[in-house]
Design a protein that fits this description.
By secondary structure, the chain is α+β, with helices and mostly antiparallel strands. Helices cover 18% and strands 27% of the residues. Helix 3 crosses helix 4. It is globular and about 75 Å long.
Length: 310
């Protein structure tokens, strides 16, 4: 309305959480603690592709809580766009550092004693997306007659461009705390999409809506890297917590976070552009192949962004 004062435009608007952060009052996941809390860890595959033939504990596991795919009360799946990713590998490994076994102990230092031998029958992985026979998603956007456009061009420029994996490198690594309560579980986490986590927990734990609660703690950066991956970690912590009937905190260190979590997709992009001498674009043909990795996760969403923006 004319003459109505603007509350935000042209003014320095303070972030609601700014004061807590600059004064050190903000509570991130690793700042939180609960009575009787255990600390969790993940044992991962050391090969990219194969069949698990044996799992052997080579340490004194007394006092530890252990969980495998056999302990999952619901479906062994990280519920998202497709139901293709297991919470824990169950006989088959499809990528390096895939989670296989979980452990928890009251003393975080005791987790360093964990020694597990996983034996495999290795297979050959497909590491080149152009050689894959499986597609998670195909998107085509067509407008006009491209051959007419190229015929009208004075010059056609062509090129192929490649981008590798991109690590989001948030300052705070992935972390959650799962707390059993009232016949269900509450998960506190560093995450971007609480409802993704809520759905994943319901499916994996076989619990109804009102027995699963997700609380987003202060999140020290995400940049897309904490959209879907916290669902995996939340399911792991919750599985241990429900088995132990005690709270379980799982915080990745930087090495594990960079090794095991999802990245921005590598891509192969081919451009063919027709231009006139006076600078007009007459045609553009752009082909994008993204490497979705072993499981679908959010690949269709990322591909759609790439296609739309071209």
């Amino acid at each position: 309305m004319p003459g109505r004062p603007l509350r935000a435009v042209g003014k320095n608007v303070r972030r609601k959480e700014g004061h807590r952060k600059v004064t050190g009052q903000a509570q991130y996941v690793d700042d939180l603690s609960f009575p009787g809390m255990l600390h969790g860890m993940t044992v991962r595959s050391t090969i990219p592709c194969g069949v698990i033939t044996a799992i052997t504990h080579e340490f004194d596991s007394a006092g530890f809580v252990c969980a495998t795919a056999a302990d999952i009360p619901g479906a062994n799946v990280v519920a998202l766009i497709e139901g293709d990713q297991p919470c824990l590998a169950d006989g088959v490994v499809r990528h390096l550092a895939e989670p296989v076994v979980l452990f928890a102990h009251a003393d975080r230092e005791r987790l360093l004693d964990v020694r597990v031998r996983i034996e495999y029958r290795s297979a050959t992985p497909v590491l080149d997306p152009t050689q894959s026979t499986h597609s998670f998603k195909d998107i085509a956007i067509d407008k006009g007659d491209i051959e007419v456009g190229f015929a009208a061009a004075d010059l056609v420029l062509e090129g192929e461009y490649r981008s590798g994996h991109q690590e989001q490198l948030y300052i705070e690594p992935n972390g959650v705390i799962a707390v059993p309560e009232q016949g269900g579980v509450t998960v506190y986490g560093s995450l971007q999409c609480p409802y993704y986590v809520h759905r994943a927990l319901k499916v994996a734990l076989g619990l109804p809506d009102d027995r699963v609660r997700v609380v987003q703690a202060e999140t020290g950066g995400g940049f897309g890297g904490k959209e879907e991956y916290p669902s995996v970690l939340a399911c792991h912590a919750a599985l241990l917590a429900l088995k132990a009937q005690r709270p379980v905190k799982m915080i990745y260190d930087r090495v594990e976070d960079m090794l095991a979590t999802t990245k921005r997709h590598p891509a192969i992009v081919r451009h063919r552009t027709g231009v006139t001498r006076d600078g007009q674009l007459t045609a553009m043909e752009i082909d994008i192949v993204m490497d979705g990795g072993a499981y679908c996760t959010l690949s269709p969403v990322v591909l759609s962004r790439g296609i739309i923006h071209t």
